[in-house]
Design brief:
The complex is a heterodimer of chains A (246) and B (248). Chain A has 246 residues and is α/β, with parallel strands linked by helices. Chain A has 8 helices and 7 strands. Chain A has helices spanning 17-28, 42-49, 63-77, 100-128, 150-170, 188-191, 200-203, 212-223; strands spanning 8-12, 32-37, 53-57, 82-85, 132-137, 175-182, 234-237. Chain A has a 7-stranded parallel β-sheet, with helices on both faces. In chain A, strand 1 (8-12), helix 1 (17-28) and strand 2 (32-37) form a beta-alpha-beta unit. In chain A, helix 3 runs parallel beside helix 4 and helix 4 (100-128) runs parallel beside helix 5. The longest helix of chain A is centred in the middle third of the chain and has 29 residues, at 100-128. Chain B is an alpha/beta fold. Chain B has 8 helices and 7 strands; from the N terminus they run βαβαβαβαβαβαααβ. In chain B, helix 3 runs parallel beside helix 4 and helix 4 (100-128) runs parallel beside helix 5 (151-171). The chains are: A alpha/beta (246), B alpha/beta (248). The interface between A and B is large, with 40 and 42 residues.
Chain lengths: 246, 248
């Protein structure tokens, strides 16, 4: 008996990293999953994890693709209970060097993608009338500042704001909305850029980075009925990093 | 296979409310529990839940009592993996009428009691050498002011948040995770019997439009205590149906 038996989830960014780990865990806990990604790697995720995963191409900056992804969940699996808005990018720039292109690309994926994911996820949940649970990926960068990440932090702080707004607006319909704020996580992207990591591993009091599945576990709990009174919350998953003055 | 299979937990305030509900969930998930309370009702909790629960009388304001409760866990079950510092009190009193007695009693139970639990729980975990998890009970009152005159209660619960973060930072290196939960309006025995009549407006404050059940808070504590939350530490988690996310 899994935590998510009988539930249907859409997970964006599912070709890699924390989203891919979430697909794996959600299926292990009994859910059916639509694995959405712009990269094509969602097909690999589906092939690896097996039955219960439907890969769907989805660029979260394009509203019609998000809408189609939610529809795919209903058509393939009959309902939508959980939405994990994971897809995101992190491009750095000092504020004096921010370009319009950098700003728009960062905001388009990390904030607009989440907002429109919520819009169509909530619409689908409202149509079925069974409530639901949404988990948005914010970041430790959404709670505090760091150099090079001003626009990223703004997008991720925005994710916390829309998480709270969504929780308040749709709580009466039984839809819970929460955010996770990962610290340093050993995703494929971070593994490919060891230059990002010096010093970061010591910052978390646990003295290490997270494995993607450790963040997925928090998302699975929030998605489950065990978290029935948790809504409007932004949970750091950072080994204590955010609890500490820099 | 439960989430807490093989773990040993000390739960304070376990005679009633969220702590009693936590004892129940922890046993369901496979843990052994020392149910500590000052009231005597810890014996009822143990009688209801069976052999996996040992009741211990404990006044959390008395350091020796807390030390003995921790020792009881190690003696009876061989180790200590989890401490839930739940025991707490509240007494509304406007600031301009505040008595020293009210201040002392609230801070003693809600903050000193939590520090006692941290101190001796962490010592036992350090001795065991395999890390551990502590979950402290703060409150939405530790995050913001309420419409009731609860300044001192809020101060004590904000202090719980501060020591939670401090302990997470101090002992993360030894594999000890420390987190706090901030319950909103929960229908405990104390609130449940009269809560609906006394505070009807409270049910509407949460975005979910209802009060929480003690078991719903216990589920969050069980998750945080489990190895599934292996990278969650220093986190302050409201369990309030969305109440604290909203501008009043």
């Amino acid at each position: 008996m899994g935590l998510l038996d009988g539930k249907v989830a859409v997970i964006t960014g599912a070709g890699s990293g924390m989203a891919k780990a979430s697909v794996r865990l959600f299926v292990a806990e009994g859910a059916k999953v639509v694995a959405a990604d712009v990269s094509g790697a969602e097909k690999d995720t589906a092939a690896e994890v097996g039955d219960g995963v439907l890969p769907v191409h989805c660029d979260v900056t394009v509203e019609a693709e998000i809408e189609a992804t939610m529809r795919a969940a209903v058509e393939e699996f009959g309902r939508l209970d959980v939405l994990c808005n994971v897809a995101g990018i992190a491009e750095g720039a000092m504020l004096a060097d921010v370009t319009t292109e950098h700003y728009e690309r960062q905001m388009d994926v990390d904030l607009r993608g989440v907002v429109f994911g919520m819009k169509h996820g909530i619409r689908t949940m409202l149509a079925a009338g069974n409530g639901g649970s949404i988990i948005n990926w914010s970041s430790l960068g959404g709670l505090n500042g760091s150099p090079w990440t001003g626009v990223y932090s703004a997008a991720k702080a925005g994710v916390i704001a829309v998480t709270k707004a969504g929780a308040i607006e749709y709580g009466p319909k039984g839809i819970r909305v929460n955010a996770v704020c990962p610290g340093f996580v050993h995703t494929e992207i971070m593994g490919a850029h060891p230059e990002y990591t010096p010093g970061i591993l010591e910052k978390s009091p646990l003295g290490r980075g997270a494995q993607p599945h450790e963040v997925a576990e928090v998302a699975a709990f929030l998605a489950s009925d065990r978290a029935s009174f948790v809504s409007g919350v932004a949970i750091p998953v950072d080994g204590g990093w955010g609890a500490k003055l820099a | 296979m439960g989430m807490l299979e093989g773990k040993v937990a000390l739960i304070t305030g376990a005679g009633s409310g969220m702590a009693k509900a936590s004892s129940r969930i922890f046993v369901r998930e496979g843990a052994s529990v020392v149910a500590a309370d000052i009231s005597g009702a810890e014996k009822d909790t143990a009688a209801e839940l069976g052999d996996a629960v040992v009741p211990v009388r404990c006044d959390v304001t008395v350091e020796a009592d807390v030390e003995a409760a921790v020792a009881a866990a190690v003696e009876r079950f061989g180790r200590l993996d989890v401490v839930l510092n739940v025991a707490g009190i509240g007494a509304p009193e406007p600031i301009h009428e505040l008595s020293a007695g009210t201040y002392d009693s609230i801070l003693d139970v809600n903050l000193r009691g939590v520090l006692h639990g941290l101190k001796h729980g962490i010592r036992a975990m350090l001795d065991g050498g395999h890390g551990g998890a502590v979950v402290n009970w703060s409150s939405v009152g530790g995050l913001n002011a309420s419409g009731f005159p609860t300044a001192v209660y809020s101060a004590s619960k904000a202090g719980v948040i501060a020591v939670t973060k401090a302990a997470a930072v101090e002992y993360g290196g030894q594999g000890i995770r420390v987190n706090a939960i901030c319950p909103g309006f929960i229908q405990t025995e104390i609130m449940g019997r009269s809560g609906g009549q006394k505070f009807p407006e409270m049910f509407e404050k949460a975005a979910l439009g209802r009060a929480g059940e003690p078991l719903e808070v216990a589920e969050v504590a069980a998750f945080l205590a489990s190895d599934r939350a292996s990278f969650v530490s220093g986190a302050i988690v409201p369990v309030d149906g969305g109440w604290s996310a909203k501008i009043a």
